[in-house]
Amino acid sequence: MMTPWRYVFLVLGIIISLHYILSFSHQGYGKATSLSSIAEKIGSKPPNPPYKQGISDEYIHHATSSSDSKRKANATFVVLARNGDLTGVISSIKQMEDRFNKEFNYPWVFLNEEPFSEEFKRRTSELTDSPTSYGLIPKDHWYQPDSIDEERAKAAREDMVKNNVIYGGSVPYRNMCRYNSGFFFRHELLQNYKYYWRVEPHVKFFCDIHYDPFLVMQDKGKVYGFTISLFEYIETIPTLWNTVKEFLNANPGLVPADNAMRFLSDDGGETYNRCHFWSNFEIGDLDFWRSEPYSKFFNFLDEKGGFYYERWGDAPVHSIGAALFARKDQIHFFEDIGYRHDPFQHCPQGDSHKRGKCWCNPTENFDYEWYSCLKKYDELF
């Protein structure tokens, strides 16, 4: 008998799949510019994705280890939230502390476009023995810039509302997407950190994590880590890929050999297959976002205004940036970190489920549902 949760999954799958089919029938991309020079840089594939090799024992924190002997990365958690998100933030922090951070004591950074309340600061700081910092987002990093033609942007929002596009009428949501795409890593509270783990309100962490993902990122030279990947709605990004191609043609030499273009495109870069990493979970290298290639890329997108004239999300922007400006082996799937952001979840399988004492049902797992993009990631290797 199909559980209610599985029924929701099935319905969402049908909806997303219809978007997938229709978008490729009515892409409206125009004639694509050849990116064969980038496609030619894609290398051959070894037998298994790197995540199937597991985490070596050197990273595992054993109960007998002295806290003084534990190596740590220069890293922090980052939470973008408002005062009204307190209940959901508390839930996420508590799970992260219980599942991981009580053993590793990484600090927390909270960011808000308005000052945090004393209650928010008190209740979040009570949940951890680690340092907590609370930052105000600069207004020019958050609000719709003056360069945007508001009449054009308003017309686009109204059209999306008519077409039932999720968050289609929301300016604050667009502010958030633009901020996460190009500004959060510039905040003064993050300037002295190298790595971050993005945590959102009302998410779930299903498994104990007895190793340090930050050290894996550091020691293995990773720049981006994810748990869920899926297709983006074409209605939110109709001109994004043409804009990406325009940038690449105007800025040759920024894409490294052995990139992850094949995750993004099924035809060598002519069109975008809409695969992206779901950015509500990210473990990443802040210096990668601060780098010249990504900085130029974001600034180019920002000047085009697509965050407001359309509804470009930080998930496809980050994903395209990581796939193009990093090597494919610098992108890591954390298959042993159980995670849920409604309505999708990644539940570790087999030995990883047992080792993590995961409380999610392993049959309720998004990885290889036919509207997941994990198979496209696997094909990189």
UniProtKB/TrEMBL annotation:
Protein's name in the database: Glycosyltransferase family 15 protein
GO biological process: cell wall mannoprotein biosynthetic process; protein N-linked glycosylation
SUPFAM superfamilies (UniProt xref): Nucleotide-diphospho-sugar transferases
Residues at the catalytic site: 282 (nucleophile)
Single GO MF descriptor: alpha-1,2-mannosyltransferase activity
Entry's family note: Belongs to the glycosyltransferase 15 family.
Coiled-coil blocks: none
Transmembrane segments: none
Classification via InterPro entries: Glyco_trans_15, Nucleotide-diphossugar_trans
Gene Ontology cellular-component terms listed: Golgi apparatus; membrane
Keywords assigned: Transferase
Organism per entry: Rickenella mellea
